[in-house]
Specification:
Oligomer: single chain
Radius of gyration: 15 Å
Number of domains: 1
Number of strands: 9
Largest sheet: 5 strands, antiparallel
Distance between the termini: 38 Å
CATH architecture: Sandwich
Strand order of the largest sheet: 1-2-9-4-7
CATH superfamily: Mitogen Ypm
Helix content: under 10%
Amino acid sequence: MKAALAEQGSPSAGGGEFLVEKDAKTSSGIVGLMTVTSGSYDVLAVCQGTDIMQLTISAVKVGNTEQTTIGSADVACGATSRIPIVLTGEGLHLAAKTDASSIISGGGELIAVIVCPEWIPTPMQFGR
């Protein structure tokens, strides 16, 4: 997984592909978002190409290997999950895991965006 730039109004985001190595039972990845400052946030997570993704959100401190879990959820792929967190550290780790057998041919993907609580994107209209 990799860190990604977020859209305006969101402090940070991360995401990536679920890749499965031969004979592996699970596929997992972790991304560090070290520029997120202390505060209350919602993590919006969505995945595709697999049944369920397990997402664990941990607070981390720069230069320290200790992590404290501050949120987790089983995300049903195709739906967006909102996970409220309170960060008291200097950054976040987003760790995602899924069963290798549930990944649809072509691989699965995850995106997680850190937003202010109750943030809702601006509605867009398409068509006439």
